[in-house]
Amino acid sequence: MNVLKIGKKSSSTKPSIFLDCGIHAREWISTAFCQWFVKEALSTYGSDSEMTSLLNQMDVYVLPVFNIDGYDFTHKSNRMWRKTRSRMSSTSCIGADPNRNWNAGWCTAGASSNPCSDTFCGSSPESEIEVKNVADFIRRNKSSIKAYLTIHSYSQLLLFPYSYTFQLAEHHSELMTVAEGASEALRSLHGTQYTSGPGAATIYPAAGGSDDWAYDLGVKYSYTFELRDTGRYGFLLPESQIKPTCEETMLAVKYITSHVQKNLY
């Protein structure tokens, strides 16, 4: 798994943001966004004041494709595949849901213990090598990581903890204010409407998610994007929507990173 570190070189450790895409294999617009982010970071540094300021002050870790084997499988065999491609000796069913495999209320609400289910939580927390690798990386760099952004599709939502409980996060009001500001920034470009809120109440209860895990670890600004659309095309978003989706999402991401920059903790 390759993670890119983007930022102005520094002799000391800078605060950082972790961005991942493609945790669910079939969510192709997600992986497209990480590529778009890297392109924008490299091509607008020096000319765009927000991006320049961000990369001068912070580093951004970008994991362009989280669920590599699953993503590869959607290109070669089954376009609608969601899970990893791991094998367990006890079943012929393949894979676990990498966004139900984190140690955050693991395998309780909205996750299945059935290996054949699309929301199978895995045999244990971090049983999936992809999840273990990312969790290890974030734990190693915990002191510098100030925000965790994970990109999914679809539903046009900007979610934050919690998903494994209806209890409100300690920083609920700030997280909500930032999410609403980011959604407004996104809407300003093409009029795309997003709904903001904690995962459990806004979409559905789901245990073992990466944003809840990162937040509980101490990463305060932890957000999950559900990109376009609201169901007309679903996971099969047409190519013509890649650019506008990435452009508007960029505005929301920059809104969040700008807030993080000004509110380092």
UniProtKB/TrEMBL annotation:
Belongs to the peptidase M14 family. The keyword Plastid does not apply. One of its GO terms (molecular function) is carboxypeptidase activity. This is Carboxypeptidase B isoform X1. Keywords: Carboxypeptidase, Hydrolase, Metal-binding, Metalloprotease, Protease, Zinc. The keyword Hydrolase applies. PROSITE patterns: CARBOXYPEPT_ZN_1, CARBOXYPEPT_ZN_2, PEPTIDASE_M14. Its cofactor is Zn(2+). Residues 1-260 form the Peptidase M14 domain. It comes from Salmo salar (Atlantic salmon). Pfam families: Peptidase_M14. The active site is at residue 226.
